Structures are given as structure tokens and as C-alpha cells.
Amino acid sequence: MAACWRTRNCEMDMQTHCSHALSDYDMCPARCSYAICDRPTYEFTSDPDLVFSADLDRAQVLKQGCLWCKFFLTNGPKKKIAAKSAEE
Question: Which residues fall within 8 angstroms of residue 67, CB to CB, at 6 or more apart?
């Protein structure tokens, strides 16, 4: 996906905000027209219990839109919780 703005001829304004243009990897910005999810499982949600879930591993997100997707928020990767030590 690197340099996608070059092959897609994104406008200069988008290039200045596109995370792929700024760093080696970061999630696709929601305002990018190529970041729109076309999967049949995508469902926008504003449910605070899902959107602000503390156990979701947001580092695995590829697109900002995933942070508002009910399917991803429900089924996405969870943070690994370190096992409590035997001393506790």
C-alpha cells in the first residue's frame, strides 16, 4: 500500500494528510475516498460500549473507518493481557 497516493493520483491536499505519505505505515485516514469499506460485514456504529472498548487492540486497525465498524469492534483482535504472576 506504500505510495498509494502516487498510483491513485490523490490531490495534493490529501497527500499532506495521508498517513502513507507521511510514514512507512499508519492507518488509512477516514477522509480518503479509497479507505471506504466495501465489505458486506461493515456496519457503522456509535455505540459507546463498542467504540470505547478498552480490550480492543487498535494497533491492528488498517483504516480509521474500522474504529466505527460494529463488526470490527465486536470481532477484532483483543489486547493480550499479561498473566498475573504467581506471587500475587
Answer: 51, 58, 61, 73
Confidence of residue 9 (pLDDT cuts 50, 70, 90): low
pLDDT at res. 33: 72
d(CA 82, CA 72): 23
The reply to whether 27 falls in a domain is yes
What's the pLDDT score for residue 23? Answer: 58
Q: Is there a single domain that holds both residue 13 and residue 43?
A: no
Cell of 65: 473507518
Residue 70, helix vs strand vs coil: helix
Look up the domain containing 7 and give its range: 1-34
Average pLDDT over the chain reads 76
Average pLDDT estimate for 63-87? 80
Q: How many domains does the chain have?
A: 2
Grid coordinates given for 38: 466495501
Q: Considering the domain boundaries, does residue 88 fall inside one?
A: no
